[in-house]
Amino acid sequence: MKPLLTLIAAAFVLTAQASKKQTVAHGYPINPVPFTSVKVTPGTFWGQRLEASRKTTIPLAFSKCEETDRYTNFSNAAKHLADPSKVFEIKKGTFPFDDTDPYKTIEGASYILQTYPDKALASYIDSVLNVIGSAQEPDGYLYTARTQNPEHPHDWSGPTRWSGEEQGSHELYNLGHMVESAVAHYQATGSRKFLNIAIRFADLVCKEVGPDPGQACVVPGHQIAEMALARLYLATGDKKYLDEAKFLLDYRGKTKIKQEYSQSHKPVVEQDEAVGHAVRAAYMYAGMADVAALTGDQDYIKAIDAIWDNIVSKKLYITGGIGATSNGEAFGKNYELPNMTAYCETCAAIGNVYVNHRLFLLHGESKYYDVLERTLYNGLLSGVSLEGNGFYYPNPLESAGQHQRQPWFGCACCPSNICRFIPSLPGYVYAVKDRDVYVNLFLSNKSELKVAGKKVCLSQETEYPWNGDIKLRIDENKAGIFTLKIRIPGWVRGKAVPSDLYEYADGKQIGYLVISNGDISPQSPLNSQLQDDGYITITRKWKKGEEVQILFDMVPHIVRANDKVEADRGMLCVEQGPLVYCAEHPDNTKDIFDIRIKKDIRFRTGKTEIAGTPVTTLIAEDQPLTLIPYYAWCHRGSGKMRIWLPEEK
Ligand code: FUB
Ligand code: ZN
């Protein structure tokens, strides 16, 4: 679309299927519309990513689980259980959380099954579940790093159950991923096969891990069990899982190991700064939000609100990545955001999406989606290649050519997390509260929502993020009067992030226009109705066929970091819409590290294909410089890449 300043006028409700079986409400004041109710249009930006996930990423991950003995660990454990004289050496270079790769891949595949029923896939998963189930000890314990060889378990496992948990055994991490996956599998297939395995392990944990005499009073060395147990409570209605999740949070900082690395340096409600391992931290904040939503615990909310402020004001990369340093895969100090050595683990970006989504569901403000969208289109998407078969673990903002995507890793947390995240993406588009329908992400889809218990069908047509024109249509409305709340992104409102960490340096105002039913009269009140929460609201008795057009100018925007960020001092970066751009070697004859730009640099857009996928490039008008979207970097061989470019005054 042309610049718009010229044109001024106008659950985690689990899933539709699962919600019938769900016995408990999630407690958030806002209900996300489940991904099963949002059908993304094939061939579009996200349609391609979903297809790559289904056709390439998930089959690849399953094949890597076979190739790298992930399943053998389960069958070895089963052999030991059948004949205790048989023990199996734990191989060097393996991890005690290798069991989670099959779990996470099954979780992603289960989401896929809900949208694309596939008998062969369902039966493959079933066969994997036979192997997984065979490794479960009679009392429910399932942790192959010990069961294969109880006398000589993995070095990190500790000599007895739970004794190594706070250092690195990952027993509770394995439980968490198992539960997340088992609930997804149950919702997708209706089969309790995996759920029953997970329930038996969870029941054992509730019995053996806790504050009472005879229990192991430990908290997870790596969080995720907190949100998983909250999810198991939702799926089963059994409150002991919620109580266990709350114990795991409330005892953090009160057990033997106290360290920032695993956020156990102090009780969670006293924490106000994001520290330590970034994935552990983000999962913990997400778990706190889930438990707070279910219990009403205001102290948790106060703590995560403060931590979120700290992240967005001092510890967030322009890509939405978090975790600045490879040392401990951790958050750095305030404003410590190096570019070439940026860690920005893909899993941490996924965790950042989880946290911001949950804070939106608690508070209903679009600023959380501004961070979520920035993370999604940049720091998260860069973690998987466009073909779906190459992954980044760290996602640096600058490269001298030393980086290359890999088809898998010894520590495969990131690829398997991509397996489960991408298929769940449609669940982040809409949300509903009473008669308010939040339109949070812009992508072509057809959706079915429940508004005040009644059916409402919506569709979106758009080429976003390449183009800012979005057509939102009411395809059916049995709910009568309701309010559409349309998110006006921070990048449109001149607020790069909800803090002073980054600002737009070019003084440009991005035009936008919301037109309801073709009313483009200058008196149209819609644009003046931008609320403090970041939404434009339109309330009416919507009729079938009525349309809202949302038009955002898609023009390059120049960003400057807060001067306190030493790594970005004197540098500028270029964005367009939700996308952060970078200079990469194949498009530029000049050495990337010699390029300088002015804050009033002018670009025209170009089109190219990277890995067979169309992308919009930015071509400088007055100097030889072409930029591509950051997420698409390193598809054409390793070489130099840079997001932040020195400013020429
Ligand atoms: O410890 C399990 C996973 O492995 C973490 O989330 C990643 O950071 C990697 O260390
Ligand atoms: Zn990871």
Describe this structure in words.
The protein has 649 residues and is an alpha+beta fold. 35% of the residues lie in helices and 17% in strands. The strands form three sheets. Strands 3, 10, 14, 15, 16, 17, 18, 19, 20 and 21 form a ten-stranded antiparallel β-sheet that branches. It has a six-stranded antiparallel β-sheet with strand order 2-6-7-8-13-11. A five-stranded mixed β-sheet has the order 1-4-5-9-12, with no helix packed on it. A hairpin with a 2-residue loop joins β17 and β18. The chain is globular and about 75 Å long. Bound molecules: beta-L-arabinofuranose and zinc ion.
Helix share, percent: 25-40%
Estimated radius of gyration: 24 Å
Identify the bound ligands. Answer: beta-L-arabinofuranose, zinc ion
Low-confidence regions: 1-22
Question: How far do the termini sit from each other?
Answer: 31 Å
For the largest beta-sheet, the strand count, sense and barrel status come to:
10 strands, antiparallel
